[in-house]
Every structure is written in C-alpha cells, then in structure tokens.
Dihydroorotate dehydrogenase (fumarate) (Phycomyces blakesleeanus), 313 residues
Amino acid sequence: MANLSTNIAGLHLPNLFFNASGVCCQHEHELKQLLESDSGSLITKSATYEMREGNPSPRYVPLPAIQSSINSMGLPNEGYEYYLAYAKKYDYSNPKPLFVSLSGLSVADNKKMVEGFVAANLPCVLEINFSCPNVPGKPQLGYDMEAMESALNVLAPIIKKPFGIKLPPYFDIAHFDTAAAIFNKFDNLAYLTCINSVGNGLAIDFETETALIKPKDGFGGLGGLMVLNTALANVNAFYRRCPNKKIIGVGGVTSGKEAFLHVLAGASAVQIGTQLKEEGPKLFSRVKKELEDIMVAKGYKSLEDFRGKVKTL
Ligand code: DOR
C-alpha cells in the first residue's frame, strides 16, 4: 500500500490532494462537497475585505482540446467575514485541515483581514494570494519584489503562526533567486504555493474570431495541462532554493501522473483547479487511486521516497 499522507504548516493531511483556491470553494455548499470528497484538505476562495461580484461573464471558459482553461473571474467572493465565520464554525476534529485564502486589494486590507483571523485564534492556515492576475488596475504583487517584501514585513509578524503564500509563475532564473532570497527571510512563511494561473493569456475562437472571455478584452489566467511544465519548474526552483519551506504544487494536474511529477519536482501537496472545475469533487478518488497505483508500480511506499528526487542529465 502507498501512503499519500503529508504535512503542511505543521498540520497533517490524510492525503496530498486538495482544491486550488477559487474552484468549488466560494460558498459553504461547495466547501461541503470538498469535505465529503476524497480530498486531503480544502481551501476557501480568496477573500477580499468587502464582498465582490467579480468581472462580467463569460469569465471562465474551458479549453477542452488541450485540457486547459482561461479565466478572469476578478475575485468574486463573499467578503472575508463570511470565510472567518466559516472558519470559526469549522469542525477541527475533521482529519482535513482548513486553509483560508486571503487576497486583499491592498496591504492595508490584507492586514485588517489577517488581524481578524489572528484575533479569532483558529487552527486554520492562512494562504495569502500575491498573484491574482484578474483585477483591472491591480498588478500582481508577486511580480513586484520590493512590494512583496514590504507586504511580508507587515503580515508575517502579525500572523506569527506558520502560513503560506500563493505565487505567480516566474520565468527567469534571476526572479527565482530574488524571490527565494526574500521568502527565506521569513521563518513563519512555512510554504509556497506554485503556481497561480499564467496571467494574461488570450484565447480566441477560430470561427467567430472573437475572444472567449469578456473581461479585459479577453485577457485572462491560463490553467490546466498547458501550464504543467511552468508549474513544475516553479515548484522545483523554489524547492531547491527554500529548503526550510514546503511547496504546494498546482498547475496542470489532470491525473495521478502529473501529481507524481509535481512531487518529484518537490511538492509536498498538490492542488487541482481546472480539472476539478470540469470533473467535480469525485475527481479526488480517481487521482488518489492513480497516484497510489503509480507508487506501487514504482515501489514507492511514501511521498518522501521520491519527493524532490527528479534526476537531471
Ligand atoms: O486565476 C485566478 N483567478 N487567480 C486568482 O488568484 C484569482 C482568480 C479570480 O478570481 O480571478
């Protein structure tokens, strides 16, 4: 038998799989579906200080021919107090730990939300989203190294406990180096989630010659299989550079096989977005079984047996 259990931010997950923030997690009934699924954990939709309707539709379109998607949701969410209330009534005797994603539109908003959670002193884990590509006029904080460091300087000491951040994909070795050096300054920054969608792609319908989504003239974040290799590179780049931090891999996981590759690259847990949106929460039973079968076939008993052990030529 293969053991898929893992640890993130000091908490035990019965298996490494959960949803990528944004999918199946805006409302309580969706979070309930995740709780009832075979996932090892769950994370809430990125919250802003006030509730948001998000961008006009169509704002998510699957690209089935390439098992991918484009979205410009624009952070529709119920406002942080909704997720705080959910976290307050969450049953922490459940084997699945609860992760809460926060995506303030300013450092001041992130600070207020974090203070709200700290005051409640809950055993959930905060994941601060530094990488939403879809709010018009708001650049992704993760691409502004100085701004990201000052945000961490404000937030990390308030949070005190282990927490994580959701990063955009980086594409240059110098950016991996600079970002990792910043992250390594913060001891309670326990994990990095790599990657958010690949921002500002453009999907065009060949017949109608029209952009597939409405917001931002059709520009939106790319997810699914087309981003797998960028995700693996980011997981591995930070796994190598941040030895005291855990990496959560997200991007391009459609089956146990891509999850296996994420762990080989260094992931301690794996989040699934596009494929979960398309298949629904029953996906978790399938990918768990597929990964277990791969591990048995290769003779691996636990994730530690192969985590980060990708060979290079
Ligand atoms: O692709 C994304 N879409 N990433 C985010 O961080 C937020 C989400 C949205 O709501 O637009």
User: Anything to note?
Assistant: The longest strand covers residues 189-194. DSSP finds nine helices and 16 strands in the chain.
